[in-house]
Design goal:
It comes from Dactylosporangium matsuzakiense. One of its GO terms (molecular function) is hydrolase activity. Pfam families: NUDIX (PF00293). Helix content is 16%, strand content 39%. It is built from three helices and nine strands. The strands form three sheets. A four-stranded mixed sheet has the order 6-3-8-7, sandwiched between helices. Strands 5-4-9 form a three-stranded antiparallel sheet, with no helix packed on it. A two-stranded antiparallel sheet has the order 1-2. By secondary structure, it is of the alpha+beta class.
């Protein structure tokens, strides 16, 4: 079933989003899903990337991060995701940007509102979650590979990130 075809409240037909159900009047919108992501830097001009272990973009380099839970602030999500994916506690630094992106999920192109912070590891040793990544590497910020999502390519060129490295 494609998103927006049926009302989530009464099941009546609605058409594509945004939509107002003709049966019950419920309005449904396609809003971006917020994310929180860290750009972990070392003082040697490198950043930490994870090779994605699952679709979408399986096998591409990714930054540690993910979707916010219900009412979770994106900064809290960034810290939580780093802990879950890498097994480390991070300290957030400067906010490095917010971008609208696209995430493919269940054969749909979903809008995402991506939030990025410069960060450093403050406690722990990297223990990559194999469900999230097949490997990790410290890559050169001056010559990064193409990342899994275009917004990551943009944020790696951001002056906030460059001057923090």
């Amino acid at each position: 079933m494609a998103a927006g075809r049926y009302c989530p409240r009464c099941g009546g037909p609605t058409g594509e989003l945004p939509a107002k159900c003709g049966a019950c009047g419920y309005e449904t919108y396609l809003n971006p899903r917020p994310t929180g992501t860290v750009v972990l830097l070392r003082g040697d001009g490198t950043f930490l990337a994870i090779r994605r272990a699952h679709p979408p973009r399986e096998g591409w380099w990714d930054l540690p991060g993910g979707f916010c839970e219900g009412f979770e602030h994106p900064a809290e999500a960034a810290v939580r995701e780093a802990r879950e994916e890498l097994g480390v506690e991070v300290e957030l630094g400067e906010f490095a940007g917010m971008h609208i992106g696209v995430y493919e999920f269940q054969d749909e192109q979903l809008p995402v509102l991506e939030h990025f912070w410069v960060a450093t590891i403050k406690a722990g040793h990297i223990a990559l979650d194999p469900a999230e990544g097949s490997e990790y590497a410290w890559l050169p910020l001056d010559d990064p590979p193409e990342m899994a999502f275009p917004s990551m390519d943009v944020v790696l060129r951001n002056p906030v990130v460059r001057r923090s490295s």
